[in-house]
């Protein structure tokens, strides 16, 4: 193409065959509707043949924005015939080795080809602009069909002139869009695949644009694409089998291209990938993608925060918290609200981290202004949760009650800001329950239950626990049965366990054994019928722990003094979990029942070594030591073990009871009476399972 | 998800009959239907708002509701067109249904329709979960060859991550309360699978219900990105109005909701201003909700949707498929 010397000219000019002429005369003729005259003028002025003149005219009309006119001009050319004329010229020469002459003749025919194809392409664009998408798509498809026939071995890199390549690339990119606009989605899908799977010699940018458009189509069109045809499947290569897979594959390829420097950064790629992988529950895989991004793509703090969200979403809270700690460092972005809330939330689940969580939550509260003000309630809620968790590991009674009341205060403050947040109501209920304010707990639990229409399993469980703490066993059982009725089989595990415990509390051990048997059958059925794939996360969460069942049964048989049965169950449980303080405690109980106090003591010592704060063992240990002798040394050791237990769990009824016995033995009747009273009061508010069972 | 699942695809011969019958019984409930012909029943824009408003009436979802019975029967007819017709009303049904759960009103009518949709999906999926295999670029795919990466890795297809998009379905004869979200969610998955056939009005209504379900005002997120810097800028006064209709949004419900919203925002028809606005609004509300729940699994995809929909507004007007214009017109 000749470069125009005039720089920017406002007058259009025709250039061809080494001469040029002004377009104004031709334009005037066109304006009068004389296409024929205009054509003649061009042919004369530039010594062109009919097709060339028409092509130039069409181009002129198109550039003038007169798309109808352009269409009229193009309709005059028999493009189909022109295409057919092109084909032999190419296909014969294609397989021949490159030679000077050949390339020469090549470029001539390529010139003719690009002339025809450009004319068709402009026709397509004109039709598109007129909203005739189907027609445009069909024309556009003809271009690609023709090109495929001409270059049936794929378009070679070097031999193609720029203009032809440009038109081919444009047509490849435009076709799927046209089908999409025409509402022909199946055609659009095959056009996209044709664009990406055939050899069009597209440049990187063009290819990336097509890939991106296809991704958008796959993810959001709501049209399920059938898998790619067998023809394109190469042995051993990965073939996506549905929209999400295909979109994710393309997005990953796009990211890789960026990493290899073949494409400039496009943030939307990462956003689409985030959406797609999140939808698949694969924030873990998303985290990997974030990690593999080159440094500098995102500001590092943004990257850490996104990673933290991914990891936390995938359940890797430890790693998430580590990243959040980095990003919340005073030199980074210490007041980032989302990070503060997420960090506090993660900390609220672990007693050892609760203290740290309190700091995060407090910082969030002090930053809750402006556009963040609506999140103040959330920050207060997190504070309450962290404080409540912290209370469970408080080192003194005073500290514990202080933390508990602070926790309650925060939650109550939060609920004033968010009266509709039923999760908050639930958390309040748990907090009340843990502090043995059972009436308030029941009220909140009911409120939550009604608001969520019984759709949340843990609401049923909390109700059962609170009722059992109020010693309203039969009501608790009614609720349990109703809950079982409202729950699918695979999620009934935790409820059945509660039911067994309720039966024990009501002195119906045989019913409890029956329930445990049913539970075992359920576990077996679950194992059989599920491949690891099919289990939804919900079922996974509610899966009964087989170990728990055997352990529960062991305790039950021990309670009934059926030592042989207990022994068998204990063995089963031990096979599932070798080192468990709870199990060792049960073992101790068994030995004690059989009168083997020394072995029993060994078991409890082992348990305490394994888990220094395991309260039931401390109690049992004290009882065992006490049995070994009534010298004051023994009694002192026994007492210290019990006080330890009470420090850890001041609401443990059994510990108070044993302490009472000890005092009585030691002759301190008043103290003994106090302890017994405490024990009996606690019995009135003892639930069949600790409230922490819920979370 | 195969189109027209296993539940009785009606033969072409009896479907006109069924269409007629469906109209006849519908016209007894919607008086203005009068002159409707079978084909206009499927396309007529007037019918949608009429039925939609009937579905919002106070006792609309009761077990003795004629309209619910009609929807149920019509869906069960197995005629694909009629099933699509019923599906259009899913947003209203699901929306009203979930919002009324806390009122403890009997809603057996709505539940019957939802269960019919659920059963349809259950049958067509044949106890198989919907899964996605996360590709590993180290292995070649149809779109790339792995040669550019290091040594060709051993094919460990077993190590490929398989993600469950929607777990296998078990049949349900009633709506058990703990399965409610799942049943509605699966119905919405069906809606998404047929969304290309759904009218804009139905999608708009869906978006509005999303906002209600979120129970959270999202206006403060109108300017998403500036959020970091803008400190003390415009103060959004926290107006804690009493919001009705906030519902639990477990993942099994939220996931299909997000897919539908993604379609409304970024799908082929996102140039419809009303739909786009409604969907953006729903997105902001759900984002606010996800922040209130401190739920990273929800924050991530919704944030991405919000960012992507912002790009739609500032869409690059440059058409890459346009040929360059020049004043010199040459061959």
Give an overview of the whole structure.
- The complex is a heterodimer of chains A (695) and B (331).
- Chain A is an all-alpha fold and 695 residues long.
- Helix content of chain A is 70%, strand content 1%.
- Chain A has 34 helices and two strands.
- The radius of gyration of chain A is 39 Å and the shape is elongated.
- Mean pLDDT of chain A is 86; it is low at 1-9 and 91-105.
- The radius of gyration of chain B is 23 Å and the shape is globular.
- The longest helix of chain B is centred in the C-terminal third of the chain and has 20 residues, at 273-292.
- Chain B is 48% helix and 4% strand.
- Chain B has a two-stranded antiparallel sheet.
- Chain B folds into three domains: 2-128 and 176-189, no CATH class; 130-165, no CATH class; 199-313, no CATH class.
- Chain B has helices at 15-27, 38-43, 47-55, 66-76, 80-87, 90-100, 108-125, 180-193, 200-214, 251-266, 273-292, 296-313; strands spanning 130-134, 161-166, 328-330.
- The chains are: A mainly alpha (695), B mainly alpha (331).
- At the A-B interface, strand 1, helix 3, helix 6, helix 8 and helix 9 of A face strand 1, strand 2, helix 8, helix 10 and helix 11 of B.
H-E string of chain B: HHHHHHHEEHHHHHE
Apparent shape of chain A: elongated
Biggest sheet overview of chain B: 2 strands, antiparallel
Q: Give the proportion of residues in helices of chain A.
A: over 70%
Strand content of chain B: under 5%
Spans of at least 5 consecutive residues with low confidence of chain B: 1-11, 148-155, 226-240
- The level of helicity of chain B is 40-55%
> Radius of gyration of chain B in whole Å, from Cα?
23 Å
- The overall number of domains of chain B is 3
Largest interface: A-B, 136 and 102 residues
Query: What is the mean predicted local confidence, pLDDT of chain A?
Result: 86
Q: Cα distance, first to last residue of chain A? A: 74 Å
Major beta sheet, strand line-up of chain A:
1-2
Question: Please, how many helices of chain B?
Answer: 12
What is the first-to-last residue Cα distance of chain B?
51 Å
InterPro entries (chain B): Hyccin (IPR018619)
Organism (chain B): Flemingia macrophylla
Protein name (chain B): Hyccin
Keywords (chain B): Cell membrane, Cytoplasm, Membrane
């Amino acid at each position: 193409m000749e470069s125009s010397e005039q720089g920017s000219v406002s007058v259009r000019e025709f250039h061809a065959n080494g001469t040029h002429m002004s377009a104004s005369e031709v334009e005037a003729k066109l304006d009068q509707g004389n296409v024929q005259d205009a054509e003649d003028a061009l042919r004369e002025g530039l010594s062109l043949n009919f097709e060339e003149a028409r092509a130039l005219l069409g181009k002129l009309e198109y550039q003038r924005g007169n798309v109808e006119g352009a269409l009229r001009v193009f309709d005059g050319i028999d493009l189909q015939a022109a295409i057919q004329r092109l084909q032999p010229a190419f296909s014969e020469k294609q397989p021949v080795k490159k030679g000077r002459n050949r390339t020469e003749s090549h470029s001539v025919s390529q010139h003719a080809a690009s002339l025809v194809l450009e004319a068709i392409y402009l026709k397509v664009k004109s039709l598109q602009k007129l909203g005739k998408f189907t027609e445009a798509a069909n024309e556009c498809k003809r271009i690609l069909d023709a090109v495929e026939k001409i270059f049936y071995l794929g378009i070679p890199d070097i031999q193609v002139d720029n203009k032809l390549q440009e038109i081919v690339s444009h047509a490849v990119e435009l076709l799927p869009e046209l089908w999409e606009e025409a509402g022909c989605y199946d055609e659009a899908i095959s056009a996209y695949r044709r664009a990406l799977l055939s050899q069009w010699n597209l440049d990187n940018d063009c290819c990336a644009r097509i890939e991106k458009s296809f991704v958008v189509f796959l993810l959001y069109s709501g049209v399920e694409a059938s898998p790619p045809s067998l023809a394109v499947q190469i042995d051993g290569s990965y073939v996506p089998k549905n929209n999400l897979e295909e979109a994710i594959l393309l997005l990953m390829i796009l990211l890789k291209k960026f990493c290899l420097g073949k494409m400039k950064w496009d943030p939307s790629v990462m956003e689409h990938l985030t959406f797609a992988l999140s939808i698949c529950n694969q924030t873990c895989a998303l985290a990997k993608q974030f990690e593999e991004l080159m440094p500098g793509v995102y500001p590092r703090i943004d990257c850490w925060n996104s990673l933290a969200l991914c990891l936390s979403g995938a359940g890797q809270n430890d790693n998430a918290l580590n990243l959040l700690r980095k990003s919340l460092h005073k030199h980074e972005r210490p007041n980032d609200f989302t990070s503060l809330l997420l960090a506090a939330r993660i900390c609220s689940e672990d007693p050892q981290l609760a203290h740290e969580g309190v700091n995060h939550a407090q910082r969030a509260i002090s930053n809750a202004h402006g556009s963040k003000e609506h999140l103040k309630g959330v920050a207060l809620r997190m504070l309450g949760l962290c404080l409540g968790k912290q209370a469970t590991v408080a080192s003194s009674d005073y500290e514990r009650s202080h933390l508990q009341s602070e926790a309650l205060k925060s939650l109550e403050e939060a609920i004033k800001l968010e009266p509709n947040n039923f999760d908050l109501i639930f958390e309040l209920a748990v907090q009340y329950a843990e502090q043995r304010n059972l009436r308030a707990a029941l009220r909140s639990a009911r409120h939550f239950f009604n608001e969520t229409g019984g759709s949340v399993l843990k609401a049923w469980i909390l109700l059962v626990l609170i009722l059992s703490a109020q010693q309203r066993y039969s009501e608790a059982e009614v609720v349990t049965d109703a809950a079982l009725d409202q729950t699918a089989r695979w999620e009934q595990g935790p409820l059945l366990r509660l039911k067994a415990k309720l039966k024990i509390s009501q002195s119906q051990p045989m019913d409890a054994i029956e329930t445990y048997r049913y539970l075992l059958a359920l576990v077996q059925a679950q194992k059989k019928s599920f491949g690891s794939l099919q289990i939804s996360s919900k079922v996974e969460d509610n899966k009964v722990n087989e170990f728990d069942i055997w352990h529960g049964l062991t305790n039950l048989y021990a309670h009934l003094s059926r030592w042989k049965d207990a022994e068998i169950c204990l063995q089963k449980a031990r096979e599932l979990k070798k080192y468990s303080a709870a199990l060792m405690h049960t073992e101790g109980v068994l030995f004690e029942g059989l009168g083997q106090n020394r072995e029993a003591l060994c078991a409890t010592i082992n348990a305490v070594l394994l888990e220094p704060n395991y309260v039931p063992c401390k109690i049992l240990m004290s009882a065992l030591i006490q049995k070994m002798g009534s010298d004051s040394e023994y009694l002192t050791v026994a007492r210290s073990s019990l006080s330890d237990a009470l420090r850890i769990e001041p609401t443990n009824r059994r510990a108070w009871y044993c302490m009472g016995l000890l005092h009585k033995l030691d002759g301190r009747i008043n103290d003994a009476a106090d302890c017994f009273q405490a024990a009996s009061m606690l019995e009135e508010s003892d639930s069949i399972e600790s409230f922490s069972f819920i979370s | 998800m195969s189109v027209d699942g296993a539940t009785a695809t009606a033969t072409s011969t009896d479907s006109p009959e069924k269409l007629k019958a469906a109209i006849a019984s519908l016209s007894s409930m919607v008086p203005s239907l009068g002159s409707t012909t079978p084909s206009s029943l499927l396309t007529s824009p007037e019918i949608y708002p009429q039925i939609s408003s009937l579905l919002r009436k106070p006792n609309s979802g009761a077990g003795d509701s004629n309209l619910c019975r009609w929807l149920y029967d019509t869906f069960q007819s197995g005629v694909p067109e009629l099933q699509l017709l019923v599906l259009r009303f899913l947003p209203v049904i699901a929306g009203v249904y979930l919002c009324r759960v806390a009122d403890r009103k009997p809603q057996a009518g709505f539940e019957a329709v939802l269960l019919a949709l659920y059963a349809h999906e259950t049958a067509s999926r044949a106890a198989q979960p919907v899964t996605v295999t996360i590709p590993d670029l180290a292995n070649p795919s149809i779109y790339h060859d792995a040669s550019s990466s290091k040594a060709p890795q051993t094919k460990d297809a077993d190590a490929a991550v398989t993600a469950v998009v929607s777990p296998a379905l078990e049949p349900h004869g009633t709506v058990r309360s703990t399965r409610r979200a799942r049943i509605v969610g699966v119905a919405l998955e069906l809606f998404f699978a047929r969304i290309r056939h759904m009218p804009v009005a139905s999608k708009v209504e869906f978006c509005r219900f999303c906002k209600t379900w979120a129970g959270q005002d999202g206006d403060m997120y109108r300017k998403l990105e500036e959020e970091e810097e803008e400190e003390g800028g415009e103060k959004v006064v926290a107006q804690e109005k009493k919001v009705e209709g906030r519902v639990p949004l477990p993942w099994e419900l939220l996931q299909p909701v997000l897919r539908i919203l993604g379609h409304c925002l970024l799908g082929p028809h996102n140039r419809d201003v009303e739909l786009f606005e409604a969907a953006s609004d729903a997105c902001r509300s759900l984002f606010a909700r996800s922040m209130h729940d401190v739920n990273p699994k929800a924050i991530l995809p919704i944030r991405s949707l919000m960012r992507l929909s912002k790009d739609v507004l500032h869409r690059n007007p440059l058409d890459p498929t346009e040929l360059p214009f020049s004043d010199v017109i040459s061959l």
